[in-house]
Amino acid sequence: MKIEQIYTGCIAHAAYYIENNGEAAIFDPLREVQPYMDRAIKDNAKIKYIFETHFHADFVSGHIDLAKKTGAEIIFGPTAKCGYECTTAEDNQEFKVGNYTIKVLHTPGHTLESTCYLVSDENGKAHGIITGDTLFIGDVGRPDLAQELVEDLTQDKLAGYLFDSLRNKIMPLSDDLIVYPNHGAGSACGKNMSKETTDTLGNQKKTNYALRADMTIEEFKAELLDGLTPPPAYFPQNVMMNINGYESLDSIITKADKPLSPKEFEAVANQSEALLLDVRHENDYVEEHIPNSIFIGLHGGFAPWVGALIKDVKQPILLITPEGKEEETITRLSRVGFDKTLGYLNGGLKAWKEAGFETDSLHSVSPEEFASKFIESIVIDARKPSEFSAEHVENAKNIPLDYINDYLSEVPKEEPFYVHCAGGYRSVIWSSILKARGYHNMINVEKGMSGIRSTEVPLTDYVCPSTLK
User: Fold this and answer.
1) Could you tell me if 326 and 256 are in contact, meaning their C-beta atoms sit under 8 angstroms apart?
2) Which of 56, 65, 324, 469 has the greatest number of CB atoms lying within 10 Å of its CB?
3) Cα dist. 54→22, 117, 181, 251 in Å?
């Protein structure tokens, strides 16, 4: 059976392509739709349907643009109401893609309209189930993302719906079915996802905590809701874009792909209150950067960190990029709904300096230098609370990057302090945000914990009181 997973690691997202007898379907496409069209062209197939498992929160789907370009029909599950032309399917309704059958299984819980799609081959044998955010490998979807959209809807109610959906719609299915989820490890749509991106349903019944046969609904809710951290601020904004519609990505790129001279760049920055976003490597930012610019490097978890740290998708943005990475940066910003890129610095930092504009740098030390000086110094760990609890520098304080905007009052204002993460990427983002807010007393530790472990710095796994309650 021809079903292909198209995985995008930077946002831990899986779309799916199915083709049979000259007809194709796409499930949960990303916003840049040309790769799906190219895939269908390769098979000499016509994209007939675009299936959406739910209104996504962590990315802007490409369903609207793809439908306009191909004439394909957009399909959502029961209860979905769109601000554009789409088909709201009924539970157990079937659709044909060539000789394959796609059966709608309404599985509310992650959201009210959440739907799985059971895929059967030309002989009617069920092959796999595309589960969206209902069932992941090792986890299930968090039930707190849709509660603000419906009056009196709570995460407790959604958790109850999810319990019923898993047991009544998914667990009775054959153990040999392949589970095809929408996300893998690294997504904020769950809390304990595996690095594996497919598995058999039978193995998930054995290993996934949420599918234990003897589990009560009270136990399920307790385990599901335990340890949930607040969702990123951009999630509800992306949901509304997916519900109501959005501007074409082609149009966004045309407007945003605008080279600006250093003088034009400065003028636009002053006139627009744009955020200056530096997406180069962290080592380049540490060495030299434009004052008040924020670093979030393209080579890391770029789009999710943008979404987590820049609270408003309508924030105007000016880019400092590696040469040739301008359009890629604009596209990856738009994946998570940030469509207000105003242009980029033409010629990069070299042109900025040649035009006579000043630069700044970030004080940074090697792990060995940190080891020789850290005693009686303030040390801040920018990693997640779970990472900190597992192992951290003795007497360090945990202020996770994810929530830095909410805990600025806990950052020393005058006294020098060291900051580190796991490998050096997050601590530079952390420091850049502080520098843009007028803090200049931090010292970044290169290579983070991966480098610190090779020194004599004392480490502990004692769980200190968390910054996050």
Assistant:
1) no
2) 56
3) 26, 11, 12, 25
Indicate the helix (H) or strand (E) that contains 180: strand 178-181
> What is the residue type of 110?
H
The whole model's pTM is what?
A: 0.92
What pLDDT digit, counting tens, does each position of 114-167 carry?
999 999 999 999 999 999 999 999 999 999 887 667 778 899 999 999 999 999
CB 341 within 8 A of CB 256: yes
CATH number for position 263: 3.40.250.10
Question: Where in the sequence is the domain holding 267, given as residue range(s)?
Answer: 247-354
- DSSP labels, 204-248: HHHH-GGG-TT--HHHHHHHHHTTPPPPPTHHHHHHHHHHH----
Which residues, other chains included, contact 23 with Cβ-Cβ below 8 Å and sequence gap of 6+? 45, 46, 48, 96, 97, 98
Domain identity same for 375 and 345: no
Sign of CA dihedral 56, 57, 59, 65: positive
Please report, for the domain that includes residue 205, its CATH number: 3.60.15.10
Clarify whether residues 125 and 182 are in a common domain.
yes
Q: Which two tokens stand for residue 265?
A: 């760049």
Alpha carbons 199 and 384: distance in angstroms, whole number = 28
Q: Are 290 and 359 contacting, i.e. CB atoms less than 8 angstroms apart?
A: yes
CA 25 – CA 98 distance, rounded (Å): 10
Is 168 found in the same domain as 281?
Answer: no
Do 140 and 181 contact (CB within 8 A), yes or no? no
Residue 186 to residues 154, 166, 190, 297, Cα–Cα distance (Å): 25, 23, 9, 16
In terms of domains, do 380 and 306 share one? no
Number of domains in the chain: 3
Identity of the amino acid at 295: F
Pair (47, 195) in one structural domain: yes
CB neighbour burial string for 221-231, b if at least 16 within 10 angstroms, e if fewer: bebbeeeeeeb
Closest by CA to 332, choosing from 372, 366, 363, 305, is: 305
